[in-house]
Please model this.
Amino acid sequence: MYEILERQDLTPIIHMFKIRAPAIASKAQAGQFIILRQGENGERIPLTLADWDSIKGTVTVVFMEVGLSTMKLAALKAGDCITDFAGPLGLPTHIENFGTVICVAGGFAVATIMPIARALKLAGNRVITIMGARSRSLLFWEQEVGRYSDELIVTTDDGSSGRKGLVTEPLRDILAAEGNGVARVIAIGPTIMMKFSAKTTEPFGVKTIVSLNPIMVDGTGMCGCCRVTVGGATRFACVDGPDFDGHHVDWDELMARQRTYLEQEARSMELWKCQRGGCTQEAQHG
Amino acid sequence: MAKVDRMDMPRQLAEARAKNFDEVALGYTPQMAASEAGRCLNCIKKYCVSGCPVGIDIPGFISALRENDIKRASRVLKEKNALPGICGRVCPQETQCEAYCLLGKKGEPVAIGRLERFVADWESNNPSPEQPIAITPSGKKVAVVGSGPAGLTCAAELARLGHKVTVFEALHVAGGVLLYGIPEFRLPKTIVGREVQYISSLGVEIRLNSVIGKIDNVDELLSSGYDAVFLGTGAGLPIFLGVPGENLSGVYSANEFLTRVNLMKAYRFPEFDTPVKIGKKVLVIGGGNVAMDAARCALRMGAEEVSIVYRRSEAEMPARREEVENAKEEGIKFRFLTSPKSFTGDPKRQLTGMECQEMELGEPDSTGRRRPLPKPDSDFILETDVAVVALGTTPNPLIAQTTSGLEVTRHGTVIADEMTGRTKKLGVWAGGDVVTGSATVISAMGAAKRAAADINDFLRRES
Ligand SMILES: Cc1cc2nc3c(=O)[nH]c(=O)nc-3n(C[C@H](O)[C@H](O)[C@H](O)COP(=O)(O)OP(=O)(O)OC[C@H]3O[C@@H](n4cnc5c(N)ncnc54)[C@H](O)[C@@H]3O)c2cc1C
Ligand SMILES: Cc1cc2nc3c(=O)[nH]c(=O)nc-3n(C[C@H](O)[C@H](O)[C@H](O)COP(=O)(O)OP(=O)(O)OC[C@H]3O[C@@H](n4cnc5c(N)ncnc54)[C@H](O)[C@@H]3O)c2cc1C
Ligand code: SF4
Ligand code: FES
Model:
């Protein structure tokens, strides 16, 4: 069992857990993830390592409530234990001194990009971070990320904080202004945001790394559920990734595969809400 | 002596079992077991034993059974096989012990597997207090990687010999393919759980959620105090067809499909959280046991039509006869001499069908089976909601990539001595599917036992 040592609610639907997992903490690298399972009936879901402390033996994950498993997780508090927790999985993000790197993060992925920005900074890069959210109340970790960024740009869809609009707009502006000065872009967030970030950088010919988030089961290369097409070849995101060259990803395929269980996901969430009291007629009789 | 026919084993009726995940074969009653045991000639030459990969004293346990001393029968079994309840159910006896049985020369061989299962089940319902084995601790530590039949067997053997054993398992439960691959209706998971419990009771520590190569690698295990490492990591990497459309939503590897259904219990969704897609029509591509298991799972989950698509003819199918018969009885359809060319989908990239071509058999190939050749202009489309690709597996490359000095073949299998399990790296042994590629439970166990014996020699010599 893996104890939750600390819980913070970063936004109403984004939460941070600090968890005791010494074996993982001692090996973790930026860009890797864990797979957890909560409860004996739970499913296995992947979450990125947002931070770790190899001396204290702890790792940090940040997750957004989007469906049954993440809501079940959100019901836990400090002192509770997570049933299963395996990692660090996937290949670490490739870090070296590239020169200038733009990190783009959307939604909960600000937490995912944090250790990457930190590693890039420590490697000597000039780091420009663009972080976006729908509105001010959904922003978090501006200071943490800011600490490892030479420049921090915030966007919100509604303009309640920072620049109004999507992350792709400042991204395009910087690329247009700096041209070949930018060596690499790392974009992490919702699939659609990564797709459009890659589309934005493509005309500028700047290498763009994305961290893909297909549905996974084992996370060790055993099932092939996480397969994605990159440059025409099938790759398993859990072992060959999750980082890939965004200019070569088959985005439509990824999005189609992510939608495989929409029906079942909605059904199991209704049932769960029902068990917790907030029932709709349909789920009761369905 | 009057000739007695081989005793059939009762099974759930096909119609009923096609709708549930309860065990298909129900096992012998004591009367049935006595009658079947009575058929054994107790041959002095023990032909059957030569067909058993772990060398169980088969006439010995059957004699005990005939004398109604089931406890003794169980002891005889356990001397050579720590997992008789599992082997009695899943071993391909028809190509092993029963293939050598003298009675089989003229008629039907003794039903050795069914008797083994009977004894194991009787023992678990009437447990005798475990005789404490006097173990002298050796002070040596062994790391076993993987908790499939190979890992569990090696761990049990070494623990009994006094070594401190830690098993590292990547998944959240121990059992390997026994848990995530072979379905409940052929091998109830409580039986696997019982065997894992027994192995823990020997003092073996099982560390779940521990992916070796991601946490410590094999080199680090050796330098952090383990005196030996046994690799029982299996052959877990699925092979795909490599045809267009294979990544459409609705196309599964058999590993994914079976893992969702068996390990994650998708057949009890939404009580369990993991979903699986079934739809009305399911195609399973392949002709082995894995294909039969996937097809029979799909049927039980409520698919209206499940078909197995195989590119050769029925005679070449590698699956066990018994499982093919079971599948047919349950209503699985077979499309022989049919080979997939591509998958087709709708604009939302959901699977809608599989484009196939008809095949005909040519000259025998290197495996001795007649080679399938495409018939010209024979393309057609099979409509389907779900397709499961069951073409086999190869070892996961993770261990080979993260262990210095370990040699592998070009198929990715670890090179190890057949008699001792020694790999090219000092202090590291391997056995089971990771060495042979997909094989059988009992061959994995046999290899693990030989490796355990050699590890013991090595550790005793060292001290
Ligand atoms: C490598 C990787 C790293 C990730 N890191 C984070 C992270 O740090 N923080 C975070 O909030 N989310 C992260 N995710 C996404 C997270 O795993 C999903 O949001 C979560 O599994 C949704 O489960 P659910 O039951 O709550 O929602 P559901 O209602 O089941 O699903 C909502 C959507 O999430 C996706 N999803 C569902 N099940 C899985 C699954 N088993 N594996 C992957 N995706 C699934 C599907 O696209 C689905 O439509 C990551 C995903 C991957 C692949
Ligand atoms: C669907 C199906 C049906 C089958 N039916 C039969 C049958 O009826 N009869 C029969 O005899 N055989 C059958 N087999 C074959 C049989 O199950 C295998 O030959 C046998 O399980 C091999 O045992 P193993 O211990 O070598 O490997 P596995 O059972 O594959 O176990 C390997 C274990 O190692 C773990 N592992 C892998 N890598 C790591 C790592 N890096 N760190 C930690 N742990 C790791 C895996 O998670 C797994 O639990 C079937 C196989 C399948 C897939
Ligand atoms: S070969 Fe057949 S008859 Fe002879 S001892 Fe073995 S099981 Fe009995
Ligand atoms: S999640 Fe199973 S292979 Fe990647």
Q: What stands out?
A: The interface with chain B takes residues 23-24, 26-27, 37, 41-44, 68-69, 83-89, 217-218, 220-225, 227-229, 234, 239, 250, 252-253, 256-257, 259-261, 264-265, 267-268, 271 of chain A (CB under 8 Å). The longest helix of chain A spans residues 262-275.
